[in-house]
Amino acid sequence: ADWLQEPSQSELARAFVAWLGEILLPSRMPEVPLPRLSNFQEARTLLAERVKEWTRQWREEGLRKGREEGQAELLMRQIESKFGPLSDEVRQRIATADSDRRLLWAERVLTAERLEDIFE
Fold first, then answer.
1. How many Å apart are CA 79 and CA 15, to the nearest integer?
2. Contact in structure between 75 and 95 (CB atoms under 8 Å)
3. Which of 4, 7, 11, 61 has its CA 20 to 30 A from that of 90?
4. CA dihedral (105, 65, 81, 116) positive or negative
5. Is 20 exposed, middle or buried (0-12, 13-18, 19+ CB in 10 A)?
6. How many CA atoms does the CB half-sphere of 35 hold within 13 Å?
7. Conformational region of residue 62, where left means phi above 0, alpha means psi within -120 to 50, and beta covers everything else
8. Confidence class of residue 100 from pLDDT cuts 50, 70 and 90?
9. Contacts with 103 (C-beta within 8 Å, 6 or more apart), sequence order
10. Cβ–Cβ under 8 Å, residues 37 and 20
11. What CA–CA distance (Å, rounded) separates 87 from 100?
């Protein structure tokens, strides 16, 4: 970073800022609004301020996805224990359902007499 701030590296610093602000960050985080970066110092400041926040957000997102995948897997195992192997169609339906729907289906597993009773 110090080296890029030397006057002899101004073109490289400008290219780095353009790459960072127009290519790397938008491609890695398309949903994150980013300010337009005009110089290397702005890029450093942006990264210093946001890296901790982004790391926290990514961790939370990873945990949420992990919980959802675990919830879907547990529901499939419960249903398979009661009704036998599931079709790919049922597996896909469970995998793509939202958390509230999966919880409803998990409750229905307890009283369902047929596989169809869970999803009706």
1. 56
2. no
3. 61
4. positive
5. middle
6. 11
7. alpha
8. very high
9. 71
10. yes
11. 22
- pLDDT for the residue numbered 110: 94
Matching residue, tokens 């949903």: 31
As separate numbers, helices (DSSP H) first and strands (DSSP E) second, the chain gives 6, 0
Beta carbons of 106 and 79 less than 8 angstroms apart: no
Dihedral sign of CA atoms 4, 5, 10, 15 in order: positive
Q: How far apart are CA 14 and CA 17, in angstroms?
A: 5
Q: Is the dihedral of CA 78, 84, 85, 91 positive or negative?
A: negative
Average of per-residue pLDDT across 57-73:
89
Amino acid at 8: S
Find the Cα–Cα–Cα–Cα dihedral 80, 85, 89, 90, rounded to 10°. Answer: -10
